[in-house]
Amino acid sequence: NAGVTQTPKFRILKIGQSMTLQCTQDMNHNYMYWYRQDPGMGLKLIYYSVGAGITDKGEVPNGYNVSRSTTEDFPLRLELAAPSQTSVYFCASRNKQGTRVGSNQPQHFGDGTRLSIL
Amino acid sequence: GQNIDQPTEMTATEGAIVQINCTYQTSGFNGLFWYQQHAGEAPTFLSYNVLDGLEEKGRFSSFLSRSKGYSYLLLKELQMKDSASYLCAVRDMQDSNYQLIWGAGTKLIIKP
Predict the structure, then answer these.
(1) Which residues contact residue A68 at a Cβ distance below 8 angstroms, ignoring those fewer than 6 apart?
(2) Which residue of A1, A54, B19, B98 is most buried, as measured by CB atoms within 10 A?
């Protein structure tokens, strides 16, 4: 029962460095999401994907990129790290919305990646 | 606009009952979720409401009033392990992909 797996759990970057946050899920979920969570703030959607090969911007996409080459994997790329990107990053997935309006398909979260940019 | 409001922090006593409120304003409504998040951990799903009324699940219950844009999470027989943040999230029907709009969360502190 792995669910949603994120790596690494912690990382410290220098300003201007790049890195990829990995996310994989084994539940065959169509939808995947990347959020950032700053202290005292709600989850902010960075990017999401409704299926392999399809991605779209969320609320705060600047400074990030994603790809979705397979159903399982949804990596998040930081090209030029900035101090404002210091945050906790969560990846989530959910099954496709049912045909009945209002059907319950909750998001399942990974354990998060704690990223500091110094 | 879209907005979700929750109290920032609440304190309650072990064994007691606490109600955490959530008010929302969205363009369309397609369900409200409550998640629990322990410090340093991922959010985990607690409950889902799409119709008016009370949904009970063990010690936790969640209530929804769509006409008032209001929900609450009721926690009974509080235990120390219930100390966590509780996140309210609304699914906006206007977005065809049914994105969630998240509140900032309510930090619940349980005292012995």
Answers:
(1) A32, A49, A51, A52, A53, A54, A55, A74
(2) B98
Q: Which of B82, B57, B88, B44 is nearest to B70 (CA)?
A: B88
- Asked whether the beta carbons of residue A106 and residue B48 sit closer than 8 angstroms, the reply is yes
Contacts of A58 in chain B (CB under 8 A): 99
In DSSP notation, A73-100 reads: B--EEESS--GGG-EEEEEEEEPPPPSS
Residue A25 and residue A90 in contact, taking contact as beta carbons nearer than 8 Å: no
Q: Which of A27, A97, A104, A114 should we substitute to test contact with B (largest number of B Cβ atoms within 10 Å)?
A: A104
Chain A nearest-CA distance from B3, in A, is 11
Comparing CA positions, the residue from B109, B102, B63 lying closest to residue B85 is B109
- Token readout for B81 is 């392990």
Q: How far apart are CA B83 and CA B102, in angstroms?
A: 20
pLDDT tens profile A78-96: 999 999 999 999 999 998 7
Beta bridge partners of A108: A93
Dump pLDDT digits (tens) for A16-61: 999 999 999 999 999 999 999 998 788 999 999 999 999 999 989 9
- Residue B15 has what DSSP assignment? T
Q: Is the peptide bond before A61 cis (omega within 30 degrees of 0)?
A: no
- Residue B32 pLDDT class (50, 70, 90 cuts): very high
> Given A42, A45, A108, which is nearest B104 (Cβ)?
A42
Residues in chain B: 112
